[in-house]
């Protein structure tokens, strides 16, 4: 038994708009240089990737990517400074939440499984 935390940023209505999926997509855009290539690498439909990014941008109120059109080497996308800041903050928040979850798990569940197993054996031995 172990703890596992899933992290999402939600709007005021409680609807998710940013989490591990969009975060990984941004990392992939940064590495690949385009949304289309990132979507392909993640085995995701381009339209889904596009909508994930646009939805996050609408909720956050700032652009996450800047597009370049055509030219030598073709077009592409790169992350904005705010997107990079968001990713850094998300990584830090995720790490802090994981540390806190681990500490709380230890506080509330340390030895619980062994105790529960011993109780079960005692009852079945009667």
Structural features, described:
This protein has 126 residues and is mostly helical. The chain has a single domain (8-125), classed as Winged helix-like DNA-binding domain superfamily/Winged helix DNA-binding domain (Arc Repressor Mutant, subunit A). It has helices at residues 20-32, 35-41, 46-60, 81-109, 112-125, and strands at residues 8-10, 16-19, 65-68, 76-79. The protein has a two-stranded antiparallel ribbon. A two-stranded antiparallel ribbon has the order 3-4. β1 and β2 form a beta hairpin. α1 (20-32) crosses α2 (35-41) and α2 (35-41) packs across α3. The protein is elongated. It starts with 7 loop residues before the first strand and ends with a helix.
- β-strand percent reads 5-15%
Mean pLDDT figure: 89
Assign the CATH topology: Arc Repressor Mutant, subunit A
Structural class of the helix and strand makeup? mainly alpha
Q: Give the C-alpha Rg.
A: 21 Å
Q: What's the overall geometry? A: elongated
Percent in helix: 55-70%
What pattern of helices and strands is seen along the backbone?
EEHHHEEHH
User: If strands are numbered along the chain, what order do they take across the biggest sheet?
Assistant: 1-2
Poorly predicted ranges: none
Question: What is the CATH H-level superfamily?
Answer: Winged helix-like DNA-binding domain superfamily/Winged helix DNA-binding domain
* Number of helices in the DSSP assignment: 5
- The CA-CA distance between the termini, in Å, is 27 Å
């Amino acid at each position: 038994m172990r703890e596992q935390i899933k992290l999402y940023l939600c709007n005021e209505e409680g609807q998710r708009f940013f989490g591990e999926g969009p975060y990984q997509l941004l990392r992939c855009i940064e590495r690949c240089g385009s949304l289309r290539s990132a979507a392909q690498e993640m085995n995701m439909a381009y339209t889904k990737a596009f909508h994930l990014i646009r939805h996050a941008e609408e909720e956050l109120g700032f652009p996450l990517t800047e597009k370049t059109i055509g030219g030598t080497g073709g077009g592409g996308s790169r992350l904005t400074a705010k997107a990079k800041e968001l990713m850094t903050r998300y990584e830090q928040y995720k790490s802090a939440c994981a540390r806190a979850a681990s500490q709380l798990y230890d506080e509330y569940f340390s030895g619980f499984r062994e105790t529960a197993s011993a109780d079960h054996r005692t009852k079945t031995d009667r």
